[in-house]
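Illustration: Pirin family protein.
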Amino acid sequence: MSILGRRPDELDLLEGRDVPLGRYTVVRRSLPNKTRRTVGAWCFLDHFGPEDVTGKPGMRVPPHPHIGLQTVSWLLGGEVRHRDSVGSDQVIYPGQLNIMTSGRGIAHSENSPTSKPPLLHGLQLWVALPDAVRGMPPAFQHLSDLPVISDKSFHVTVAVGALEGAVSPATVHSELLGADVALDAGARTELAVRPDFEHAVVVTEGTARVEGVDVSPGSLLYLGEERDRLRLETDERSRLFLLGGVPFTEDLVMWWNFVARSHEEIVEAREDWMARPKGDGTDRFGIVPGGEEPLPAPGLPTTRLMPRPRYRRG
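Result:
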């Protein structure tokens, strides 16, 4: 169905697609979608698991680069060890937040620890950095204490931004919302949201009715703008992640692990990554400790990379 010409407050249920991540993990990618590429500055969303990793390697993502974005890691089950080229070495657990700012360039790896729980389940998201700050130095933030909103039938953790008066300490560079919402069976509630934001939800467990639409894992429900309340209902225990933000209107050129503004920037970043690291602090992406072999960049397409619209006809 066409998105162009529809009112901004209309709903759009978008199907995700399965994508391999590393050698051992398959994710369901909801953003970018063929018809909608961003929700606010959120420009990428992978949902992995729940997967029983007993006797398996679990997540194995060798060192790889990023530019022009923030990675937001949110676990629902299991453990993942993050290591990066600015010296961070952090195991993340469910209910905690890892947020890495690539700025001009960073490299990191993500692996399940050797001694790990049997279940692996979570979300990996990217936030596009605004042009004014996308050349900033790289940084990493780990937050183990996040604000919570709870009632007898629901429990909300505000990972990024603010909701119902609860404000996350996560450092972001545009007006955003990211919140994990756990609903008990039979829950009926409404959340107050900003009408100048566009919003979307991805369900991670069970089935929830969001503004009257049933949403299950594997789909993203785009909710549009001009809403000040969000109605949530469920007949079974369920869980979802709420995304929001002021519509991001800057041009984006996304390729592999890079978020840029032009074909030339992507070419330069790829060349910088593929150049042998000097290890003396002068190279763009640095070295990720651990001795793992970094991922090589794929070949560039034969056609010029161009900015794509925030949304287009299906």
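Reading the tokens back as a structure: The first helix runs from residue 263 to 274.
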